[in-house]
């Protein structure tokens, strides 16, 4: 039995960024290496009202060691597996630090690249200049962390590489949307969930954003900071907002870039993302058709019809790859979506379309593999897919009613005629998750928190601009910075205006003029 899945939600992380040269391979995973001690961190004073059984966690001292990478230090933090019952077991949280270049840090700036499931350790270790501009590196210790369940932090573990290939790339045998097709997808989701429970163990139950936010406060404390300084991208905005809701008294300067609306249901998310990527596809086509190297002719609408026809063709006749995999619509949609995260990647999207139209799936699999964290040897470099499922299956409420899913799928197809038909039925994937208790999505107000910056991009496909507007409006102390442009997230993406606003706020606490709009 194949472990096929149906798409639900799209990974929303800042590291889905511009591709460099196609077919050059993936970023090498970062791991700590043995070495001399980098010193010991003194934790911040423990609050008087902290529960007695949590005091040992908050008073632990971190033993830093040198890491692979110039000037980086690594440490491991012990956290309760279950924050409600700390005596029931521990988990480990992996962190990496680059010391402030100026030598006198304001504090630690914690970074989260999104996902859920993306590694903050990788972000800082491999891409610190992308993550933080020079003023931030000068005035802060830059700290990346893997949230619980992610990569090096007591990771969610589900399938081996062969199993992941089957889950992500195998093709359903029944007609899409039929009862048999739904049963097949349900069975695949159940098998995946069972494998996650078996191979992860009891910690899987506690992989939730609320618990990750509690871990974040622990990191703040053991790093010696009274206030949290935080830069969260994409899903990281939900983690940061959740932190501010739980710990408003410790919410220092928070920047939430590429925001999620905490009150949005899974159905709302599917609609917004489908329409967001449909809009990004149209923007790509408008740009493409203005060049001499575009694989499409005619108008944007005509080109969209060509892409819809291409997807339908691949659905009927999948394209074989040299490694034995077959390119179906789910993988092709992933390959289309991935370059739409950044306008700088659009030329590579054109190359991919040209190849697929000629019957060659090489670039399509390359893009899908990058999105899924799979290298050219068929190995998975991280556990982003497993962690993504673990968080979302607990953070959202899913409706397994087939008639509701069919109605939602029809709506998606109408609202986003190219992308939408392949975004429905997402509730199936979590319908058989081992832990059935799910969070109720609601607004986040973070009453009593210091000012919180929300950054939104007007044509962000993964986290649509209306989500940034919603979050800034919900937060009692939230304010919105708008970037008029394309792509996912805005900081350090080429806008001097955005960069200056973010850096002045984090370094000096400067709140920009109301309604700041950047280009």
Outline the fold blueprint:
Blueprint: E1 12-13, E2 37-41, H1 55-58, E3 62-66, E4 72-80, E5 90-98, E6 107-112, E7 114-115, H2 120-131, H3 134-139, E8 140-145, H4 161-169, H5 179-200, H6 209-222, E9 228-233, H7 235-246, E10 251-257, H8 266-289, H9 300-316, E11 319-320, E12 326-327, H10 329-340, H11 346-357, H12 362-372, H13 384-395, H14 402-415, E13 452-459, H15 465-474, E14 478-486, H16 496-508, E15 517-518
Parallel strand pairs: 6-8, 6-9, 9-10, 10-13, 13-14, 14-15
Antiparallel strand pairs: 1-7, 2-3, 3-4, 4-5, 5-8, 11-12
Number of E-type strands = 15
Annotated CATH architecture of the largest domain: 3-Layer(aba) Sandwich
CATH topology category name of the largest domain:
Rossmann fold
Q: What is the SS-derived class?
A: alpha/beta
CA gyration radius, whole angstroms: 22 Å
> Sheet with the most strands?
11 strands, mixed
The CATH superfamily of the largest domain is identified as Alpha/Beta hydrolase fold, catalytic domain
Measured by DSSP, the beta-strand proportion falls in 15-25%
Q: Helix tally? A: 16
Overall shape: globular
How much is the average pLDDT? 91
* CATH class label of the largest domain: Alpha Beta
The amount of helix comes to 25-40%
> Within the largest sheet, what's the order of strands?
2-3-4-5-8-6-9-10-13-14-15
